[in-house]
Amino acid sequence: MGPRPVARRERVVSAPLGGAPSPADGPGGPDAAPDRVLFGAPGGPSRPRVLSVAGTDPTGGAGIQADLKSIAAHGGYGMAVVTALVAQNTRGVRASHVPNPAFLRAQLDAVSDDVTVDALKIGMVATEAVARELGAWLAVHRPPHVVLDPVMVATSGDRLLDGGAEDAVRSLLAHADLVTPNLPELAVLLDEPVAATWAEALDQGARLARRHGVAVLVKGGHLAGEPGRSPDAVVTVEGTVEIDAARVATLHTHGTGCSLSAAVATLRPQRDDWVPAVREAKEWLTGALRAGAALQVGTGNGPVDHAHLQGSARAFTHGAWEQVADLRAACDELVFVRGLAAGTLEPAQFAFYLAQDALYLREYSRVLARASELAPDREAQEFFARGAHHCLAVESDLHRRWLGRYGPTRAGDAGTGGAGTGAAATSPVTAAYTDHLRAVAASGSYAELVAAVLPCYWLYADIGARLLARADLDGHPYADWIATYGDPEFARASDRARALTDAAARSVGPAERARMLEAFVRSCRHEWLFFAQGTSMPSWPAPSPAAAEPEPAGVR
Ligand SMILES: Nc1ncnc2c1ncn2[C@@H]1O[C@H](COP(=O)(O)OP(=O)(O)OP(=O)(O)O)[C@@H](O)[C@H]1O
Ligand SMILES: Cc1ncc(COP(=O)(O)O)c(N)n1
């Protein structure tokens, strides 16, 4: 029932306040890139198709090999064009071979002649000639999201870019949305000394952003004076968003920059802007750094573990979604859902459903407000607070746009078992769902609560996308309503709710994860019932008038 129109409203309502490009929208503002593709929607690609243009590392920790693992770990389909074959391992670089630029172009064209690229990550370009050829290709085939990792020197200290080719890398900035230099690379791009403090690094990031109209991911991996921390920041002409993380005490940092930039490139087509993509990628990278040593790869600076969330620790929502596969199929088969898609649903049944939806949203808003209160960080707090606010906006909108159309009495008829006395009463099905949510809000943890509220986003985004693809909306009585179900904005909010749930799941132990799963599955069952009541809820008798209070003894 839920927040799908909420997310839709998010775009409309926030425009006057937040309509200016956000700091992380990139140089062209929020409209520079086309609307996000709804990956996994019918008829569309199931995953973002991400191209890495970079050098190789036969030991698999950096370059293209790392990029492909990182892309896969973030749900992308990875492709790779090789700029340079590098004989290296965890101890250093021995030799490299750079194929001629014509062969690079042949590889690039082989991809762009055949495949749509949703995001591009550029890593080691090795020589000026490679950078120029790549620039020429980009001038014609620029993908919607371009991340440039201006690789110059390896962790081992070996050069990966020809001396004198810095200008050519700088020229690629014109084709990039986000550039991800480490501190020495940032200094080279600006032709300034290396920043000694985090504040200086941020200033340099701002100068680079202004000079080239690009978003800059300033990385604190090489920073000395911040003990225990490894902060990064997304810096644009509009401002700076810092993303802090604990420093992992490890030698195994080979390929961190490659892995991070590939992760961000893969997440960007799946997220609203650069900040959430970087936040998620960095959180993942910190886990990958922690798990790196256990791989026992090499005797030098070993790689990070790109697969640390796979296997037993794979994303919580992945397993939870599989658990409710039957319920999801059952939702599709409901008379209500089929009638909605076909346009054959009785208007009175639709009105009853909407009246219950409005009642539900009022309660759901309170529950989202509680999730905001419990949220562990500002981004989650804002996400749920916005959701809570928009639920109320949508509830009012439902009354104004939809329930007015059918008349409060008819909705009330359905809701009060035929009493026909105006406002709808909460049905037992609606009450059971909101009771469940409020119980988790009252006594569950943040992790359990986000799992409980997730189905209201995710099931609707999922059903919405399929309804939209199937239904012919021309002259359809519920066209407006179905369009809100399939709105990509809503799918984005659902993705975010899912990512927050996964982040919460990663921070708790197995017992709490089991409670999260239970809360999630229960909410899914309530969602199914909520749809089902639209066509199969019997009227229930209106309550009898309250018995008159007995008069207290001794009066008169
Ligand atoms: N020891 C660490 N603990 C936590 N995060 C780290 C650590 N070292 C690097 N990082 C993070 O890894 C990412 C890459 O940062 P870094 O500044 O090392 O870039 P880089 O030098 O381009 O990487 P690479 O080592 O691949 O060349 C950043 O998000 C940074 O904060
Ligand atoms: C092909 C290639 N690209 C990038 C790096 C940088 O990674 P790191 O600095 O972690 O060695 C590398 N070593 N090899």
From TrEMBL:
One of its GO terms (molecular function) is ATP binding. Keywords: ATP-binding, Kinase, Nucleotide-binding, Thiamine biosynthesis, Transferase. Signal peptide: none annotated. This is Phosphomethylpyrimidine kinase. GO terms for biological process: thiamine biosynthetic process; thiamine diphosphate biosynthetic process. Residues 1-49, 537-556 are annotated as: Disordered. Residues 15-25, 545-556 have a biased composition (Low complexity). Residues 336-532 form the Thiaminase-2/PQQC domain. Catalyzes the phosphorylation of hydroxymethylpyrimidine phosphate (HMP-P) to HMP-PP, and of HMP to HMP-P. It catalyses: 4-amino-5-hydroxymethyl-2-methylpyrimidine + ATP = 4-amino-2-methyl-5-(phosphooxymethyl)pyrimidine + ADP + H(+); 4-amino-2-methyl-5-(phosphooxymethyl)pyrimidine + ATP = 4-amino-2-methyl-5-(diphosphooxymethyl)pyrimidine + ADP. The keyword ATP-binding applies.
